[in-house]
Write a structure and sequence with these properties.
Layout lengths: L1 E9 L5 E4 L7 E4 L2 H21 L20 E8 L1 H8 L12 H9 L4 H13 L3
Antiparallel strand pairs: 1-2, 1-4, 2-3
Length: 131
């Protein structure tokens, strides 16, 4: 999970503009706080995915304590992104791993024509809680 500080600036109508000081060009807005947070996550995910696609290094996040509000209408919060999962999914090249199982288990699996790679991938995803 990637975590970045965001500056939420409230407008006179109760909406918010959200900017990420560490991620150039990542700005969005929402009609209220809930909508602004949702839009901030989507914007952050999209910009980071675009950076990955263009081989641009992903910037490090500032310590939230270092980010200061500029006025009474600004609020600082952290936004969590799952873009790291998207990044991981772009690395689809197969790699070889050696594993060891009991002989008896291998014999049964071979008789049932089990695909070891598929079973291992499924088990790893389940164990790690990823899709």
């Amino acid at each position: 999970m990637l975590i970045y500080p965001a500056i939420f600036t409230e407008d006179d109508a109760g909406g918010y503009t959200v900017a990420f000081p560490d991620v150039d060009g990542c700005i969005t807005e929402g009609e209220n706080m809930e909508h602004a947070v949702k839009m901030a996550v989507e914007a952050l995910d999209g910009v980071i995915a675009s950076m990955v696609d263009r081989n641009i290094p992903i910037p490090a996040a500032s310590d939230i304590k270092a980010v200061k509000a500029g006025s009474e209408k600004e609020h600082i919060a952290v936004i969590c992104s799952n873009a790291d999962r998207r990044i991981a999914k772009t690395k689809t090249r197969a790699i070889k791993k050696t594993l060891t199982i009991p002989e008896w288990l291998g014999e049964i699996a071979d008789q049932k024509h089990i695909n070891y790679s598929s079973v291992l991938q499924s088990a790893l995803k389940e164990q790690l809680g990823v899709q």
